[in-house]
Amino acid sequence: MKEKRWVIPHTYAIIFTIILIVAMATWLIPAGEYERHEIDGRQVVVENSFHYVEKSPVSFFEIFTSIPLGMEKGATIIFYIFLVGGAFGAIQATGAIDSGIHKLVVKMGKNEKFLIPVVMLIFSILGFTTGMAEESIIFVPIGIAIARALGYDAVVGTAMISLGAASGFIGGMMNPFTVGVAQGIAEIPIFSGFAFRAIVYIFILSAGIMYVMRYASKVKKDTSHSVMYEVEQQVSTVDKKDIHSGFQEKFTKRHMLVLFTLAGGIGINMYGVFNWDWFLNELAASFIVIGLIGGMIGGLGINKTFSSFVEGMKLVAFGALIVGFARTILVVMENGVIIDTVIHYLVNIISGLPATLNVIGMYVFQIFLNFFIPSGSGQAATTMPLMVPLADLLGIERQVAVLAFQYGDAISNSVIPTSAALMGYLAVAGIPYDRWVKFIWRLIIIWWAIAGIGLVMAVLTGVK
After folding, report:
1. Phi, psi of 417 (to 5 degrees)
2. Fewer CB atoms < 10 Å away: N or C end of the chain?
3. Using N-to-C axis directions, what is the helix angle for 376-394 and 317-335, rounded to 10°?
């Protein structure tokens, strides 16, 4: 009889379990409230105002009515994610991003000195502007073919693509799916703290580039240093020289115009955020315009543009709807009047610690939670309603709480087995998970350390 292997529960199952636990907690945890008042348009907790109130436990049926209420409360963020995903679906369908990157890497040929940093830089830009993650899976075969042609292995080809995008995702300066969502919940200006994030991003990207280049150099000198040595020995010489593998479309003037449209649209979004007080609704509207114009310029036509728009929304449906499920946790806690009690307990536990240790505690908590909720937007919706008032009471800037979430969420996506993007990369590349862990674990520790130092600096400098 075969022994059953433990299967990691579905993300929605995990969140629903949390909802049930929180509902039960409303029967056990005393109800309590803080007083709140408005400062500069934000609801802020009044220190030392906590008091217990009459219990209001959540009934069995109320658990399920809380789910549509959670969807309703998260509607702005949910539809923002859908519309941004739709816009990128239309842009992606034109083939402009695919062919543009393919043209770049082929044009560079065997100029190995610049290949790895340039490719990683390009994908990192896509990571911090569009939140590219799973979308970059399609480029992995090209990256592997080029890497093998230059005497490297499949790990180098995969790392150029995946870790490039991951570096930008971690930096997150304009990532609409993590930073944008978290800042919206925290009621701070969208994409504020850009300069500080950019500095940390430079360190993250530089560490990633040096790590991959060092590994590539070792493999080039001696193939036995490859974590994929046995597999690479079985790859044919033809496969190792075919840098066009998996992609044939020519880069055209249409593609160039589509990329200009995307770049120009992102530029307008940046200007709108910093000068016109644009928020999620305005950004979503802007992305609709970018998607429609890009689709038409790219030759999709009106029908194909909208069908690609819908396909793009389908791709982000998992992450978008999980925001509503995660918001249900907050709804249940609010209905049971225990959210402030939980915050009060947390404050009592860590209030005696220095602010720098408080933020590291938040950071470690987010890293732990990311294993179970690998969706960035879902994790933001789950944790930020707790982290924001906690930060207020501890005298930590809300921006720092967002940073703790951002780094805790993003870095471990490159190593945890619950990450859809990572599993997609490895499946396409044919890299066993244990080999990838053997390759990347040191970089993950380096990235965690860089982000941890960044968080301490954010507290000390009072980043807003």
Report:
1. -70, -10
2. N
3. 40
pTM of the predicted structure, to 2 decimals:
0.70
The parts of the chain modelled with pLDDT lower than 70 are: 1-8, 11, 39-45, 47, 105, 108-113, 134-135, 137-138, 231-249, 274, 351, 372-374, 418, 420
Q: Are 421 and 134 within 8 A, CB to CB?
A: yes
Cβ atoms of residues 379 and 411 within 8 Å: no
Cα–Cα distance, 325 to 19 (Å, whole number): 9
Q: What is the pLDDT of residues 336-348, one digit of tens each?
A: 988 888 877 877 7
372: Cβ–Cβ under 8 A, 6 or more apart, which residues? 11, 14, 418
Map tokens 């950019």 to a residue: 198
In sequence order, which residues have a C-beta less than 8 Å from that of residue 43 and are 6 or more positions away?
Answer: 36, 37, 187
The residue type found at 47 is E
The alpha helices in 243-352, defined as continuous H runs, are 253-275, 280-297, 301-315, 317-335, 339-350
pLDDT value for 68: 94
Residue type, 162: S
The per-residue pLDDT for 112 is: 65
Phi and psi angles of residue 33, each rounded to the nearest 5 degrees, phi first: -145, 150
What pLDDT is recorded for position 117? 93
